[in-house]
Each structure stands twice: as structure tokens, then as C-alpha cells.
Amino acid sequence: MKRSIIYLSAICFLFIGTTALKAQDFNPKKNNYLILSKNIRQIEPVLLTAHELAAEDNEEYGDFYVIICGKTVKDIPNNEDLKRLLEKAKARHVSIFVCGISLSKFNVSPEDLPENLTIIENGILYGLQLSKKGFITLTI
């Protein structure tokens, strides 16, 4: 009986130790960033952040994505300030997406959106999928 407990304990410790090593070994080749935002007014500071991170990361800088979700999608159509920021985002290689579920919920037509904006079906799901791929995420 004592041997069974010792063997079982050893197997558990071996498994836990191996799991910890796997987590420590994860090292993406690039630093990829994702911002999930419920406020389009945050895009300008996000672009400043992306610029600083690109300079800081240098060769290790990867992708920078912003997903706009929630009620703020109502503020997107005919927003000249946003159009200007989208051009700035494009120049800085920042991809901006909008949640299709939010568009539907708040009755915003995709035809009313600027061309530089990409619609994804489910912003939260997409954000979680990117997190699983190693993106550094922040919700604001």
C-alpha cells in the first residue's frame, strides 16, 4: 500500500513538473498584441502605444490588432476623426477589426463602415483565439 502511494505521488510530481516546463518553454518568435476596446476614443492612445512598442521590440515586434466591440460601434459611421485614425493605423501596421455581433445588436449596417475596418463575426471569440495563439491581450 505504501509503495502504491509513493508511486502515485511520484507520477503526480512528474506530471506537474513536466507541465510547468511546457509553460516555461513557450516563447513566441514575435511579440503580438491585441487590444479589445469598447471605446473608439481609445484608438489614438492605442496607436501611440503600438508605435512605442514597435520601437521597443524592434525585430521582435509582430502584429498589433484592435477589436472594437459593444455599444461604441454606433459611433463609427460618418466619423471623420475615426477615418483619420484608421489611416494612421494602416501606416503603423495596426489592424483594426469590428465585432459583427455588436454591429447587429446596435443596428449598424456594414455598408456604413469605413473601408479600412474589417468585420469579424464574433470579436470576443476572435480575441480569445488570438490569446491562445500567444497574443498579449488587454481589454480597455
Automatic annotation (TrEMBL):
Signal peptide: 1-23
InterPro entries linked to this entry: DsrEFH-like, Sulphur_relay_DsrE/F-like
Keywords associated with the record: Signal
Pfam families referenced in this protein's UniProt entry, alphabetically: DsrE (PF02635)
Name by which UniProt lists this protein: Sulfur reduction protein DsrE
Organism field: Fulvivirga kasyanovii
